[in-house]
Each structure stands twice: as structure tokens, then as C-alpha cells.
Amino acid sequence: MNYANWFSQYWWIIVVVIGFFGSLFTINQGYIGVITMFGKYRRIVRPGLNIKIPILESVAKRVSIQNRSVELEFQAVTLDQANVYFKSMLLYSVQNADEETIKKVAFKFIADRDLMQALIKTIEGNIRSFVATKRQAEVLGLRREIVQYVKVEVDLSLEEWGYHLQDLQINDITFDKVILDSMSKVVASNNLKAAAENEGQALLITKTKSAEADGNATKIAAEAEKEAARLRGQGVALFRQEVAKGMSEAAEQMKQANLDTNVILFSMWTEAIKNFAEYGKGNVIFLDGSPDGMEMTMKQIQALMVKQAGTTKG
């Protein structure tokens, strides 16, 4: 077989086949292809298998429409000249897959590193301008406000570039070591002050409750003593009343029996002596045991009986 003759007859078929397969290309999922002809934008192609005009058309760029992230570390200065160090994470993506948006993304910057540099510097500049209006003590509490301010300002610039800021997270805010040490001292002193105040309040409450308890106990004891004294007085009065009543009845019975009522007094005298001896518990008790002493004591008891009898009748 003469290959030279065959090739001379069917060379165009080979060229068509090579041209056909050379016009096929694929775009990965998450990307959009940008087609140019002679260096000029022509169209976009979606993920999957696509066809282009061989030699004339070329895939100039593959634009990612996926989310991208970058970490930022930079420094800012507050209104009172304190250095603040930020560590943050930036999440951004292409606004949408529309043709105009893809054209912006493809041709606004020469390369991705140029976009990244512009994006980082824009965010750093906005945060620095915001922090420059705040004092050191305010910055730590303004994390959310900083993020909201930057998103509003940066979104305007990103929209012109075809991008959208998905999220900005400020993960860490630190100061110079001298400032951190002073902050720690302030926090420690405030904690000590709060602890002292709490301890003082607790001690005041304890003392107050203790004083209230002592006062209540004294009041209760006084009331109890008052009641006990009243009851003792009533008991003594009732005892005397009952003694007088018993003696009066005994004397009346002695008169009816024609007996001398002095026997009662003598019996009371002897019972008193017996009681002294029984319950004296070794104490020395001096009594006038002479007949005169006994007679005088009997007269006193008799006078007391007469007085008690008069009181009972009254």
C-alpha cells in the first residue's frame, strides 16, 4: 500500500479530525471559562464539555466562583496612640455567574495576586481609619462594630471588581506588652476592689443578723423572765392565800372542839424547825429556842393569821 498516495488523497480528513478534537475542551465544576478571539473578549462558557473555534478562539481565563478565604495580620493605632494588632479571616467570592460580572472579574486585575493585594490593603485601610477614631479602652468592645463598618465600606469597592465580601471575622485583638500588663493590673485591682466590697457587705450582713439575733434573744429572755416573775408572784400569793385559808379553817375547827388554837401555832413552829434542819444542807441557822423567843414567834404568827383571815374575808 502506498501511504504517500493515501495521505495525499485523505489529508484533509486528518486535518478535520485533528481540528475537531482540538476544538473540544472542558471547564471544571466551580469555574467559568472566558473565551477570547485575537485577544478580545468573545463569550463565557459553563462547566462541562465545550467547543471553541480552533486556532482563532482561546480560553483566556478560568474564573472560580467558589468561596475563597485569606488570613490578615496588621497593625492599627488608636486615637490615644496605642498600637493595636489584628488577626482576621476574610471570606469572599464572585458576586454571581452573570456574564457582566465574570467580565469584571476576568479583566479588572492582571492576576489574582493583584486582586488579593488590593483587597487586603482596602480592608486594612478601612479598619485603621475606624480604629483611629476610637480610644484604646473602646477597641476591645467594638469588634462587631468594626466588622459591620468594614463590610459596608468594602462591599462598594468589591462590587466594582465583581466580588462580594461574604464574611469578615476578627479573631484576635492584642496590644503592646506594656499595655497588656497595665490592663491586667487594672483588672486585678478591680477584682480586689469588688472582692473587698463583697466581703464587707457579707461581714455587714453577718454582723447585722448577729445583732438582730442577740436582740431578739435578749427580748425573748426578758419576756420569759417577766412572765416567770409574774407566775412566781401569783404562785406566792396563792400559796399565802391557801395557807391563810387552811389556818383559818383549822382554827375554826379547834374552837368548835374547845381546843386551844395555840396548838396550831406550836405545830407550825415545830414544823418550821424540822424543815430548817431537813433542808438546811449544813448551813448554820440561829433560832431563839427560849420560851420567850418561842412566845414572841407565836404571837407574830398569830398576828399574821389574823391579818390573813381578815384579808380573806374582805
Distinctive features:
single chain; 3-stranded antiparallel sheet; alpha+beta; 3 domains; 314 residues
Which spans have pLDDT < 50 for at least 5 consecutive residues? none
Seen as an oligomer or otherwise, the chain set is single chain
Q: Give the distance, in angstroms, between the N- and C-terminal Cα atoms.
A: 170 Å
The largest sheet has its strands arranged as 3-2-5
Helix and strand succession? HEEEEEEEHHHHEHHH
What is the count of DSSP helices, taking H or I runs of 4+ residues? Answer: 8
User: How many distinct folded domains?
Assistant: 3
C-alpha-based Rg, rounded: 58 Å
Coarse shape: rod-shaped
CATH topology of the largest domain: Tetrahydropterin Synthase, Chain A
Which architecture of the largest domain would the CATH scheme give at its second level? Answer: 2-Layer Sandwich
Number of strand segments: 8
Descriptive account of the structure:
This protein has helices at residues 3-22, 99-107, 112-131, 136-139, 143-161, 177-256, 262-279, 291-313, and strands spanning 24-27, 31-37, 40-45, 48-51, 57-64, 68-77, 83-94, 163-175. Helices cover 61% and strands 20% of the residues. It is an alpha+beta fold and 314 residues long. The chain has 3 domains: 3-64, no CATH class; 68-175, Band 7 domain (Tetrahydropterin Synthase, Chain A, 2-Layer Sandwich), CATH 3.30.479.30; 236-313, no CATH class.
